[in-house]
Amino acid sequence: MRKNVYILPILVIVVATALSSIFIVDERNKALVLRFGQIVNVVEEPGLGFKVPLLDEVVRYEDRILSLQTPTIEVTPADDRRLEVDAFVLYRIADIIQFRQAVSFGGLREAEAQLENILDGQIRAVLGSEGVTSNTILSPERSALMENIRVQAAARADALGLAVVEVRLRQTNLPEQNFDATLQRMIAERDREATDERARGREAASRVRALADRTYDEIIAEATRDARIIEGEADAERNRIFAEAYTKDPEFFEFYRSLAAYEEAIKGSNSTLVLSPDSEFFNYLRSDTGASAN
Predict the structure, then answer these.
(1) Which of 184, 175, 127 has the alpha carbon at shortest distance from 152?
(2) What's the rounded mean pLDDT across residues 207-211?
């Protein structure tokens, strides 16, 4: 009976010791086995692990991708238009030994504080670099800027045992105190552009009108020249016809010309002519024999 009394506590102690020497690492974690603060084992695969009871301590770290949102900071791009920017960062613990040595007992809280400082500096450096304006930050080129920030931040976060997976600029806003001034500057720029466009429009309209006036003058001049040529040709043809008619029957031609002169002289409803009675103008009206009556 006395042996049974001692065996049971010993079994309990053995079982408890055996159980305390076993630890489990799941797929979401990595683990370090520490002995008096020194790393004695690294467990990166899920499953069972073993440690020395009472001497060893197991510290688990996240193996999943973690997220961090940075505080809002103010940056000044190349065009001196200040912007308020914050970022969303995805990262993971890539090297748990390096991570442990870098943050010691601070853990993720200390790591994220240092990562915030790294991102703060890289965001300011990239967005404030030469050639980067506020329009660039708000344009499709924003993706290239974010990748540049990620690459530079990852190079510095490597000393913490962290891998920066992705950096996204979330909000890019104007500071409240600069909003009205920026709005007025934008309005002034648009007014200036509108004035320039109107001036260019007036200049183009003047050129079109000048071209139209010149073309009109050229057309009128050509038409006038052609008309005078045609009139001259018509006069010459008329004179030729008159001359030909005169040679065929001079008496009839004189008679026809006198009738045309009478018609022209007494146009209208109240035409009055004052002539000498013996004027040759009325020879064909005074005698049947016409001009030969004299």
Answers:
(1) 127
(2) 91
To the question of pTM greater than 0.70 for the whole model, the response is no
Residue 93, amino acid: I
Closest CA to 23 of 3, 1, 52, 2: 52
Q: What's the Cα-to-Cα distance from 164 to each of 105, 144, 250, rounded to whole Å?
A: 22, 16, 119
Say which residue the tokens 């031609």 belong to. 253
Kindly write down the DSSP assignment for every residue of 73-140, as one continuous string: EEE--TT---EEEEEEEEEEES-HHHHHHHHGGGHHHHHHHHHHHHHHHHHHHHHTSTT--HHHHTST
Helix (H, G, I), strand (E, B) or coil at 58: strand
**C-alpha distances out from residue 42 to 39, 158, 263, Å:** 8, 19, 132
Q: 20 or 1: which carries more pLDDT confidence?
A: 20
Q: Sorting pLDDT into bands at 50, 70 and 90, what band is 282?
A: low
Here the tokens at position 249 are 């029957």
Cβ atoms of 246 and 253 closer than 8 Å: yes
Asked if 167 and 149 touch (Cβ cutoff 8 Å), the reply is yes
Phi then psi for residue 133, to 5 deg, are: -105, 175
Grouping H, G, I as helix, E, B as strand and the rest as coil, residue 21 is coil
Residue 135 tokens read as 């329009």
CB distance 40 to 55 below 8 Å:
no
